[in-house]
Amino acid sequence: MKPGDSAAPEPRFGVLRLIALYKIVKVLLLLLVAYGELRLRDASLVAKLLSWASARPYGLEHRVVSRLVEWFSGLSSTRAEALRLVTLGYAAVFAIEGIGLWMRKRWAEWLTVVITASLVPLETWEMFFRPTWGKLAILLGNIGIVVYLIWHVRTHANPAERAPLVAEVNKL
């Protein structure tokens, strides 16, 4: 900081980095889904999973594994390929958002606002037709991220970015 600057130093770990970690966790989960989809094409692995789940007939893992294997095995190869591409595409976008937010890049804040806000209507639709507590938590979290980032972008503009706008307003 130069003498005369009254700006407070940036926090070492703030809300932007927390959002970045959330995005990176989403990346890891999406990569696990893509990898799992590839692995579930192996018949011997599917047999081992079903055997493992049948040994626990009353556990949550039995229902989860059975439903996942049933759902994945019902996919055609074209749909499986589409699922893999969409999953990896979302993972790439979330990785770009997460890394950009971690590095406190302005473009990453705007990118995250646009992409996260564009998904809110889909998440809202899902909540109306198939509500769960998890979907509600994700919806509220994403709305909170959008609101925070809009506030952050509007209130923490660089003086260099703000100067041309102020000059334009003063001309009017």
What does this protein look like?
By secondary structure, this protein is mainly α. It has one domain (15-171). Helix content is 80%, strand content 0%. It is elongated, with a radius of gyration of 22 Å. The chain starts with 14 loop residues before the first helix and ends with a helix. The mean pLDDT is 82.
Topology of this protein?
Blueprint: H1 15-39, H2 43-54, H3 60-73, H4 77-102, H5 106-129, H6 133-155, H7 159-171
Helix pairs in contact: 1-4, 2-3, 4-5, 5-6
Strand content: under 5%
The SSE string, one letter per element, is HHHHHHH
> What structural class do helix, strand and pairing data support?
mainly alpha
Gyration radius from CA atoms, angstroms: 22 Å
Helix content: over 70%
Number of strands: 0
Mean pLDDT: 82
Q: What's the number of domains?
A: 1
Unreliable runs: none
Count the DSSP helices: 7
How would a textbook summarize the main sheet? none
Q: Please give the alpha-carbon distance between the first and last residues.
A: 34 Å
Shape estimate: elongated
Compact description:
The protein has seven helices and no strands. It is mostly helical and about 170 residues long.
List keywords for this structure.
mainly alpha; 80% helix
